[in-house]
Amino acid sequence: MGPPPPVLRSDTPLLKTVNEIVESEYVLIRDERTNAICGYITPADLSIELHRQGEPFLILREIEYHLRALILGGEFTQHDIREAKDARDKDRTVEGVDDLTFGECLYLLKGSSTASDFHH
Question: 61-77: per-residue pLDDT in tens?
């Protein structure tokens, strides 16, 4: 029989439990008010929750990828891409579509006449 599983408080943030869950296969959860064990978390539970929390960011990444592909496959010149940069961002250079922010990609695809129209 192996060592007992870790016991964590029910208010412990999920990301602080990852290593313990993976190493121990599960952790017990203690209710800090009653001091009783009120549940457990397994790697499967962790996977489901991290997927739930991360999915919106993965979807946004896919949308951004497709926007950049539309720009690359479109009729945009290097000049168009450079001009899409937010005029207020003086310290950044834009050499290609990968240097644009998400908003700048949207601006370029919208076809506004100047960057300042979109960025104000």
Answer: 999 999 999 999 988 99
Three-state secondary-structure class, residue 15: helix
| Longest CA pairwise span in the chain (Å) | 71
Structure confidence by residue, pLDDT tens digits, 16-25: 999 999 999 9
**Tokens of residue 110, six digits:** 């919208």
- Residue 57's contacts (CB-CB under 8 Å, 6 or more residues apart) are none
- Cβ distance 105 to 115 under 8 Å? no
Per domain, the residue ranges of the chain are 1-41, 56-120
Q: Report, as ranges of residue numbers, the positions in the chain whose pLDDT lies below 50.
A: 113-120
Half-sphere exposure of 21 (CA within 13 A, CB side): 19
